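Supplementary Data S3. Sequence and structure tokens for construct A.
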Amino acid sequence: MLELFALPETPAEELDCLTCSACCRGHAGVILVTVEDLLRFRDAGRPELAQRIVPGHFSEEAMETRADNSCVHLGRPGLPHHCSIYEIRPNICGAFERGGWQCLEARRFDARAKAEDV
């Protein structure tokens, strides 16, 4: 039976990305990487980031994910919801709108996955 997971109505400014990170988890291949991103990684002295790229959705390249489908760059020591490459993260990450429909969908998916783990 399909079970819906509704989230409470919360204004976007009250959503805290640093306690959530649902947008960085859940589906392999959706954190897409562009040629511009790859050039930025190289220019920032981080060419090894290009070695963590895998085939993604829509015949694009994507960030590699862990077994739990979280981005390999999610988490810093003591800060599990922080991006370890935030300053040079892919463009798609910077364009992700807190409180937008994709954010809310990621949060619903995350709530559903957590409920299934219980």
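Construct B, processed identically:
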Amino acid sequence: MASKWFETVAVAQRRAKRRLPKSVYGALVAGAEKGLTARDNVEAFSELGFAPHVAGLPATREMATTVMGQPVSMPVLISPTGVQAVHPDGEVAVARAAAARGVAMGLSSFASKPVEEVVAANPQTFFQMYWVGSRDDMAARMERARAAGAVGLIATLDWSFSFGRDWGSPHIPEKMTLREMIRMAPEALARPSWLVEWGRTGRIPDLTVPNLPVGGAPAPTFFGAYGQWMGTPPPTWEDVAWLRSAWGGAFMLKGVTRIDDAKRAVDAGVTAISVSNHGGNNLDGTPASIRLLPDIARAVGDQVEVLLDGGIRRGGDVAKALALGARAVMIGRAYLWGLGAAGQAGVENVLDLLRSGLDSCLLGLGHSSIAELSPDDLVIPEGFTRRLGG
């Protein structure tokens, strides 16, 4: 029997593609419109090189750090992504994997599992929210997350939900009705291991979002939740400050790509910002997150924690982000491929790859700690960075 272990995230993606029904796999593929930003998020890392040493290398390397007050074993966090029903255990499997590897978990308010179950699997859970509904609705969601034990809040603002993909969008049903199950039957039968895994649970994939409703309302479907978001006027900076104040604890603003927005986030009192373009699922043509990181980190890195989200596929990418000013990185697509390929074990595999890759970089660069990483460790081509709003 072939080993379930995979040696790179790219292998995990290929296995997920072979294992998941076509439309389920397609729902995990990042990108909007032409896919320019999604490609640049990944490919930009290849433009950066390393400047290694050959002697006097450290025998041990330290990768532990803290993010928003939470100690983590390495500078990698699980980025919140919605409806992980590609696996029966979904976000709970991811939370268990993260806890097993000493990594904090970001849980989407559009997730398929309730916050109470996820926090039970990983007490280091940050609850993520979109600006959906009234302030009273959002206050109720925050109180539920707080009562469940969430240790921080992530507010995601980098989502305009651009329509259309040049390579085609997958069919995603609103509900798994009998008609939809019949429609998907040929895809599911072509992926027997996935079908058997779900069959053992006696359940069908749940496409509702249990963390969004308030006041005892039933959980809406993902598209119902999206409709609620579409019907809510976008937040102002005063709204961001209110959200941060209402939460009252560790608070991250996710989706920053401009220096002026980073400075406004500081003024709003945030604990951390995530330099992110929503994995390329926002406005296509936005530069890769790693191109934007250096100038943003220089502008506000001494006032808030700066994280990088987008394009991380290996430990070397983590090292490059830290060298350019990030305190830590957030991963999304990488762990989703692991989840799709092998469930909890697949997510653990991805985290192990990032850890070993980062350790290898520290060794080659002659550093005993991630705190020692700097631009001097990199070969940065002229014109690599993009400076927006500053």
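DSSP finds 14 helices and twelve strands in the chain. The radius of gyration is 20 Å.
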